[in-house]
Design goal:
The protein has 164 residues and is α+β, with helices and mostly antiparallel strands. The chain contains four helices and six strands, in the order ββααβαββαβ.
């Protein structure tokens, strides 16, 4: 992603215990800043393997073009750690998934942590960029399938949980 072409590392796995004769692919990209993104796809017997590969490539390209530090599969999983952490945590994402919005709402209810989601690309009608998970849930800035488009900064003041 930093403009340098690198020889890809390829690992082929053939699972003799697999229950079906389908295919799958996982593509991983590491950026020059150390961010790691993944794209994956499962193919069926009726689908040519190159189509499965193209689907995985489209997924990873979409994640990279979104401009975040994490892809849509990881962003919701980080929310609980941000809520439990001590101090302020921040992460920049691409499109905000419905899973992430739900995770924020649940984490705030369960932990009394406080999240702020700031859209870095789009402005709301009143000129502000900060939206709450509740505003997003009301559909003010929804895109397809519950995705809030644009890049977002998720900030959380965690509760400083110290496991004892």
């Amino acid at each position: 992603i930093d403009g340098k072409r690198q020889r890809p590392r390829v690992e082929i796995v053939n699972d003799p215990d697999a229950l079906d004769a389908a295919s799958g692919i996982l593509i991983v990209a590491k950026t020059s800043t150390g961010c790691i993104f993944g794209g994956s796809a499962l193919g069926s017997r009726k689908e040519k393997p190159n189509k499965t590969g193209k689907n995985a490539a489209k997924e990873i390209i979409s994640a990279l073009e979104a401009g975040g530090c994490v892809d849509g599969w990881l962003q919701d999983q980080l929310i609980i750690y941000m809520a439990l952490a001590d101090g302020v945590s921040e992460v920049v994402t691409g499109g905000l998934t419905l899973h992430t919005q739900t995770a924020i709402d649940i984490a705030e209810q369960m932990t009394n942590s406080k999240f702020e989601v700031k859209c870095l690309d789009n402005m709301k009608g009143d000129g502000s960029t900060t939206t709450s998970a509740n505003e997003q849930a009301q559909g003010l800035i929804y895109g397809a399938k519950g995705l809030v488009t644009g890049r977002h900064l998720i900030r959380c003041r965690g509760i400083g949980h110290a496991g004892k």
